[in-house]
Amino acid sequence: MMTLEKLREIKEKTRPILEDRLKKEGKTEIREDGSIVLKGDYYKKQVRIALRNCEIINPDSIDDYIALDGYSALGKVLFEMTPAEVIDVMMESNLRGRGGAGFPTGRKWNEAFKYDADKKYIICNADEGDPGAFMDRSILEGDPHSVLEGMAIAGYAVGADQGFIYVRAEYPLAVKTLKKAIEQAKEYGLLGKNIFGTDFSFDIELRLGAGAFVCGEGTALMESIEGKRGMPRVKIHRTAHKGLWGKPTIINNVETLANVPIIYQKGADWFRSIGTEKSPGTKVFALVGKVKESGLVEVPMGMTLREIVFDIGGGVADDRAIKAIQTGGPSGGCIPADLLDTPVDFESLAKIGSIMGSGGMVVMDETDCMVDIARFFLDFTVEESCGKCVPCREGTKRMLEILEKITEGNGEEGDIERLESLAETISSASLCGLGQTASNPVTSTLQYFRDEYIAHIRDKRCPAGSCQALLEYYITDACIGCTKCARNCPVSCISGKVKERHVIDTETCIKCGTCMEVCPVGAVITR
Amino acid sequence: MEFKFDMEKNKEKIQEFMTFIDENRDKPGVLMPVLQETQERFGYLPAEILELISKELNIPLSEIYGVATFYSQFTFVPKGENDISVCLGTACYVKGAEKILEELENVLGIKSGGTTPDLKFSITPTRCIGACGLAPVININDETYGKLKVEDIKGIIEKYR
Amino acid sequence: MKNVTLTIDGQKVTVPENYSIIQAAKELGIDIPALCYDPNLEVVGACRLCLVEIEGSRKLETSCSTKVREGMVVNTETEKVVKARKDILQLLLDSHPNDCLTCQKAGECLLQAYAYRYDVKFREHDGAMRPKLIDTSSPYILKDDSKCILCGKCVRTCSQVDDRQVLSFAGRGYDTRIVLDLDKTFETSKCVSCNRCVVVCPVGALVDKRLMGKTRIWDAEVKTVDCKVCAYGCEFEVLSKKGKKLAVRAKAPSNGRPLCLKGRLTTELMHLDNPDKPYRKIGNKFVESSWTKAISIADIIEKINKLENNEEK
Q1: How far apart are CA C238 and CA C247, in angstroms?
Q2: Label partner for A295 (CA 20 to 30 A): which of A130, A419, A440, C267?
Q3: Contact at CB, A212 and C172, closer than 8 angstroms
Q4: Whole-number pLDDT of residue B3
Q5: How many CA atoms lie within 13 A of C112 on its CB side?
Q6: Hey, of C47, C93, C174, C203, which one would you mutate to test binding to chain A, going by the most A CBs within 10 A of its CB?
Q7: For residue A288, what is the domain's CATH number?
Q8: A400 CB near a chain C CB, below 8 Å?
Q9: Chain A residues closer than 8 Å to B67 by CB
Q10: How many helices (H) and strands (E) does chain B have?
Q11: Pairing relationship of beta strands C3-8 and B143-145 according to DSSP bridges
Q12: How far is it, in rounded angstroms, from Cα A524 to Cα A177?
């Protein structure tokens, strides 16, 4: 059985061993207050709370986690606080859901706490599915116990004795790490029956997703755990009252849960001192795209997009001009360069037509076509729509068809208006969050980059030079007449005599780009 | 689901699978883990196994099929030992990829998207693989065959028999 | 049960507190359009046609799933609501074949009725349509996927009967379809031709095949009769034209019984002047059958004959 005494012993025994290893590796700095941070410019402006242990501890070692105060919050909560007090602290901290919507965690817990039932559940939503996002994966692979401890605290607060982690099957390492972590925690008596010898019992079971993005939606996820098609439920009841198998259920995202233990270690005031008033704490982003240093960053809420991209990410790759930042994945929007000084918090991003989302942040430069980006995300949504409600199932399909038409050079007058009208209906009439936000990539690009749509439709031109169908291949006078392009062209649309400049018949050309690839002197260009 | 599943040959696997079902039968929401186990163990979801699951867990076949077709991880046709992907991109298309595909279907006696009964070959049509200069192109496993003519197909397939 | 009073389209109504808005509206004679809603089935909120505006709520809410509250003020035909309904109907029509001229469902089709009500028309486009998959394998039911609007009523009604549960959604997104068992036909699945699904289908995706081509619904006289096979008495409808009884179709299961083929055939036999040949499913095949076998009374008749012959002697 685990006791507070034993926990302290493990901590005191392991901490020096951990420090020794870290000193040898030299990637970290141990501060006077005992905190351990990663060295380097990339980390200087970051404040790592959810990622506090990532890349520092050995994720396979529960002792390492305990060495850095792991499970002390659970101990404190169980021995010193009533469930109501635990919820009070969470409300005070105003930790908001990091899965995207930003609902206050404390209020959610309180709903389930107040609702009387013989069985309650805690679910950790680890079905991270936004293309390009890997925040949750990094936490699960780098610091699994912080999530388990967060779940156990949530379980104690609301009166649940069973937790589920719903994790993508596409994350095999995360699954393996979690399995091991759960095993270790059970062995130590930190999960399972009578934790720390108290009468609080809490068990966690892993459930794997099977490749359906919509299961990131809370009620679809519950359907999936119940062994059904992951189709979101119509909201007749709150899931905090009637969720999984009709029982009160709390569903929190990985990053949210990783924040939980440290709030009980350091207090709500400490947490509130970081970030902004309405969005306290930090947010983890997966900074990717045309940025010099891509990777995970965790910053205090309220930091501007500019600081994140330039001060942490080192600016745009190849020193091109930044055009936009996409946040929030398929539910988010494209923020233009002139709004780079927008602070990153739930309200500010929503105000400019995007969302915080789960933390995808894609930097785009002048060669990225905004219409094509919108098409890409719609393509994703159409593929992932569950098909239950009409606006999402039928509407996103029609929006995608229009966007495909536009990027292929067949756009017509009226297409923009049709897109806007469809977007309005899909967002106001869809059943779940996936549908309600599906048109955001289109509406935000239409709001800030309307000219690009018009150029595609009226002038049959892609200003970013990215839409293949709107490009024209052209041979400049740098051509040496080697005939290589003509010989390799799959449709034989290049003519010209040896040692003379060749010409492409644009009518026949299928724009496969072979000529450009094979030209020894770079005489083939697109325009 | 034309593919014939060999119950005799898979006897041992089925027995192990039954043990898995027995160990988990009382777990609430067990269908997903059971389907995942099926996919992993057999490489796809054989109709015969789905019928077995239906009987063992008392879940209607229709519901099992509904769940199985909802999640993209599950497949109903096993991939062959040699997966032949046929590029149907624009360049290959104009260079006669359809004829190549037809010939492959004839030589192997299966339809595009299908797998031979001996599990040796499967045909997977794909979007442009970016080898337009070599059109028409097929990939067998990691090997690329370009500038194909219909008469080349038999010889290429022979190499993998 | 407590009662609550709310206002719908300016009229006050008092209903039990477990009512949904759509039920309360019905009390006032306000018909909120809905394709997936059926008071006898689980509420799913899929078609989104029953959206209404509730004062104090920014979002539109589905009236099938939203419970009434004291003092609630609901508007069912605002500009915003009508725009959403028109768009939803247009989206459905865009995937639906323009076949109302010959569709058996014309005149009773809800999609047709709502398209008329909101003035939404078919239009030409190059985009995707539902697949033209038609299951003609059954002599009793015709299933046409191209007309399906995926409301799921058929799946829900089929799943209410424990040993049936033949229908399910398959696939997802735009490619979602309704299938039988492992994507089988009526003939090869374990469907028992009870026609519950046909009864609830709001469009022409599931129709009673024995009715096809016999009469337009607006030309027919429809009389409801009770089935006499068992004491529960499911409801059937007898369709006649100019006094001639043409066809029988299922109307509603009775409390405690689920509708069945035997009941349907017996009702046909009792009411129709000239019923079509009955069929039985033997193995995975529908075969033409005699009436005595189809309603499985062969041995009874034999016995009756025997007894009556004895009496005569």
Answers
A1: 6
A2: A440
A3: yes
A4: 62
A5: 18
A6: C174
A7: 3.10.20.600
A8: no
A9: 227-229
A10: 7, 4
A11: unpaired
A12: 51
User: With an 8 Å Cβ cutoff, is A172 touching chain B?
Assistant: no
Tokens of A161: 């004795």
Distances (CA, A) of A265 to A35, A144, B140, C259: 13, 18, 57, 63
Nearest to A230 among B28, B36, B70 (CB): B70
Touching check for B75 and chain C: CB below 8 Å?
A: no
Cβ of C172 within 8 Å of Cβ of B61? The answer is no
Strands (E), A216-359: 249-253, 282-289, 295-300, 322-327, 333-336
Task: Please determine, for the modelled complex, whether the ipTM score is greater than 0.90.
Answer: yes
The answer to whether position A511 is within a domain reads: yes
Sign, CA dihedral C58-C59-C62-C65, equals negative
- What is the tally of structural domains in chain C? 1
**Which uninterrupted H or E stretch holds A524?**
strand A524-526
Contacts with C181 from chain B: Cβ below 8 Å: 61-62, 65
CA dihedral sign, ordered A470, A476, A478, A480: positive
- Counting every residue written for chain B, the total comes to 161
Residues A85 and A225 in one domain: yes
Do A214 and A289 sit in the same domain of this protein? Answer: no
Single-letter amino acid code for the residue at C301:
I
Number of domains within chain A: 4
Residue A71 lies in a domain: no
Contact list in C for residue A383 (CB cut-off 8 A) is: 173
- Model-level pTM greater than 0.80? yes
Specify whether A111 is located in the same domain as A209.
Answer: yes
Q: How far is A346 from chain C (nearest CA, A)?
A: 19
User: Which pLDDT does position A441 carry in this prediction?
Assistant: 95
Q: What is the pLDDT of residues A289-344, one digit of tens each?
A: 899 998 899 999 999 999 999 999 999 988 899 999 999 989 999 999 999 999 99
Report the C-alpha gap between C162 and C179 in whole angstroms: 18
Are B73 and A210 a contacting pair at CB < 8 A? yes
- Evaluate whether A106 touches A91 at the Cβ level (below 8 Å): yes
DSSP letter string, A478-500: T-----HHHHH-TT--EE--TTS
Burial B45-80 (b: 16+ CB within 10 A, else e): bbbbbbebbbeeeebbbbbbbbbbbbbebbebbbeb
Domain encompassing residue A484 = 472-526
Starting at the edge strand found earlier in the chain, the sheet holding C221-226 runs C221-226, C235-241, C244-252
**Which of A253, A272, A291 corresponds to the end of one domain?**
A272
Spatial separation of the C-alpha atoms in residues C132 and A257, rounded to whole Å: 48
**Residue A225 near chain B (CB below 8 Å):** yes
Going by C-alpha positions, the residue among A153, A161, A147 that lies closest to residue A201 is A161
Residue C50 is part of which domain span? 3-77
List of chain B residues whose C-beta atoms are within 8 Å of the C-beta of residue A212: 70-72
What is the per-residue burial (b if ≥16 Cβ within 10 Å, else e) of A404-415? Answer: bbbbebebeeeb
| Cβ–Cβ below 8 Å for A387 and C92 | no
pLDDT of res. C64 = 97
DSSP helix/strand/coil, C101? coil
Are residue A449 and residue A514 in the same domain, yes or no? no
Q: Which residues pair with A283 in a beta bridge?
A: A299
Within an 8 Å CB–CB cutoff, is residue A393 touching chain C?
yes
Contact indicator for A249, A120 with CB cutoff of 8 Å: yes
The reply to whether omega before B117 is within 30° of 0 (cis) is: no
Q: Tell me, which fold does domain B82-160 have in CATH?
A: Glutaredoxin (3.40.30)
CATH at residue A401: 1.20.1440.230
CA distance C131 to A522: 47
Token couple for A173: 């390492």
Closest Cα to residue C159, out of A425, B59, A325, A78?
B59
Tell me, what CATH number does C51's domain have?
Answer: 3.10.20.740
Span A210-223, average pLDDT: 94
